[in-house]
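Lab notes, practical 5.
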Amino acid sequence: MLLPAPSNPHFQHTNAAPRSPTASRAFVRAASTTASAPRSFRLVASVAATAATATAFVLTSGSAEAAGSYSYDPSDVDWVKLTEDLEDLCDDAEALNPGQDGFPGARGGGGPVGPMLVRLAWHCSGTYSAKDGTGGSDGATMRFADEAGHGGNAGLGHARNLLESIKAKHPKISYADLYIYAGKVALELMGCEEIGFSAGRTDATEYDLADSRFTSDGRLPDADGGGRSAKGMTAETVSAHLREDVFYRMGFNDREIVVLSGAHSLGYCHTDRSGFWGPWTYSPTTLSNEYFKLLLKGEGTFWTPKTEHKGRKWTGPPQWVDPAGEIMMLPSDMALIQDKDFKKWTKVYAESEAAFQKDFVKAYQKLNELGCKGLKKMTWRNYLLSTKREIVFSN
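Output from the prediction step:
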């Protein structure tokens, strides 16, 4: 993605993963398909004669269609072309992502598309409750006005609108699978290790709170601790919110809470969406452990409460900023160093990029599959010195 040069030379707006052994996505697409192709690049690599590439699909079983649902056969989707179309969308500097803050990366000032697609997938999945099995990514329930209007989903209509052109090209795929797969593709473009994907999510066809796929507002993380902070925000109220109200409800532990928070290495907060402002890191289109390293610079030393914005008094919600006021942390981020049990994992990931990537991929796939039934695991098989590739779906 070619982005306008930022004023701060420390910022690196790039979708290129610094660890990737491949020079660029263009190189990957032109490279020969081999068994040793790195990570997700195996999905999009193609030989020179792409027209001759053979792709076979195998479905081992079907899934039951719930009442009021659209389901589809994953073998009806061209996953190679879908992947390329999603990558092109992430790279498109003319894609419309409006926002009043003037962030670079797409037309309209709302910042790059990739992080927004990750947020869409996260918020589709993050409504799950392990106690009663409600919520999760099945159903694509954010397409309905009630859930689209939940406070945590502000601004995600822009992401859903951008994906309509992709859905038009690939009409058979369910919206639920498209939203989750788009997040996977975006993450891998921005430096994430390969994330496992299983297809077969259904789409709800009508809004019905009696349908277990639908949920009421209040299940997504609230950066300032939500209702627990009504009488005053403290590190304890924010930590309790993260644990009891959100992540423990979904079946995650403290380690998973911290590693999933590493997604904040991507993107920006928007004053016209959440009310907060700014990126968390100097490279907001690269997933890495920089987020954890920056957190450990410390409250009261590197991180101080934000008091002004563009020469005026800051009137937004509480957040922390670096000495230059160019990157920020939310109360929910600061909880990861204020809570001793969170902090020990923050240190683990700050010290090891490999540990972060390994644990993030595992926790993120778990998040995406919460509440989903009958999914088919997608496996891409490539053959050395051959143009043949095969997709196998299995339980």
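Observations recorded by the TA: The radius of gyration is 21 Å. The mean pLDDT is 84.
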